[in-house]
Amino acid sequence: MLDAGTTRHEDLRSGAGPWRHGSPRPPGRALERDTRCDVAIVGAGITGAFLAEHLTALGFDVVVIDREREGFGSTAASTAMLQWEIDLSLRELVALYGFERAAEIFRLSFQAVEGLSALVRELALSCAFARRETVYLAAGEVGPRELLDEAGLRQRAGLPGEFVEHAALMAAFGLDRAAAIVSPRSAEADPLSLCHGLLLAAARRGARLIRDEAVAYDDAGRSAAVALSGGATVEAAHIVLATGYVMPDCVSDDLHSTSSSWAIATVPQSPQVLWPGGALVWEASRDYCYCRTTPEGRIVFGGEDEGFSDPDRREKLAPAKTEALRARLQALFPHVRLDLDRAWSGAFGQTADGLPLIGRVPGRPRLLAAYGYGGNGITFSFLAARLLGRLLRGGEEHWFRHFAVDRPRPG
Hints:
This protein is of the alpha+beta class. Among the domains are: about 25-75 and about 190-250 and about 355-405, FAD/NAD(P)-binding domain (3-Layer(bba) Sandwich), CATH 3.50.50; about 255-350, D-Amino Acid Oxidase, subunit A, domain 2 (D-Amino Acid Oxidase, Chain A, domain 2, 2-Layer Sandwich), CATH 3.30.9.10. It has helices spanning about 10, 45-55, 90-95, 100-125, 145-155, 165-175, 190-205, 310-330, 375-390, and strands at about 1-5, 15, 35-40, 60-65, 80, 130-135, 160-165, 180-190, 210, 215-220, 225-230, 235-240, 255-265, 280-285, 290-295, 300-305, 340-350, 355-360, 365-370. A hairpin with a 2-residue loop joins β18 (about 355-360) and β19. α2 (about 45-55) packs parallel to α7, α2 packs parallel to α9 (about 375-390) and α3 (about 90-95) crosses α4. It is globular and about 65 Å long.
């Protein structure tokens, strides 16, 4: 019997982002007696929601378990920049794994954003979804030469994008940086509305949402079981762990660590001070900042990451981090209003290679893991649903090893 962990939603985030809290979602209910299903998904955030939608579409009988309101953990802290570009540049990933493997990973991420976009259209999800360009800015030790090398590798990998020098960058976006790579086909969304829309689609196909806490997992027999704090048990052929950054010991490994990040949302801006097309803007430095706009004209700006997850320490730093983000926003866009509508912070997971942990839990064939990390959390959540759906139907692809829980640590 495995302990499920006890971290609460308030340990995952502080404050709230500018997302719609009143969007329709299926209500979770307490489980009064033991039940059975094909797949028990533990976690009703964005990853659990993608899994529930996809697995019910494949015909699985699904139960989704969460101890609190669906989507109001780390999903509510997301800035929902749905990029196919990965936290590690293609140059960095090539240095770790070689060109062919690194290029395939980037293409898989690109395909995930394309698939996510198609799913939003297919289900007609009302989640402020919009396709966006990304502007990847020179910063820190990454200057024009390094970005030109990155652009060349992307072109070789068959990925879209264009290297842009200072003058063209200023003319197109008003950004006073030495250079950038401008790439199409990323996206943005309201993460809460996206999560709730996916859960509604799953519920309409029969998924059951259970509002209770998973306290232990048992996979020693012919089936697996999730013990709930209310006393009932969910028996399943498989359990999928989609618990965000609350990982049981059986999944933890030396690839993963948890850090803290901060974000702000301004009051709505005048259209003339916002950059054209609402592109997603981020920096090519290790400690990068990033920003996007909302349909109301707010600027969402995040970063100032720190390598710890303690919620009290994160909360104590909030005033200083908020001011630091305001200063960095002003340096990037000198003419915007700095009055804030929201400020919040949250825990986020990261791995040594910038890639998620998705697949079978080693030594536990009935336990599957779905953890999407870093700036690509939602993109990787979509990818996790497709990968695990294929596994549960008996399929296997060579590229599953790129994201395996037990893959060797690089270097």
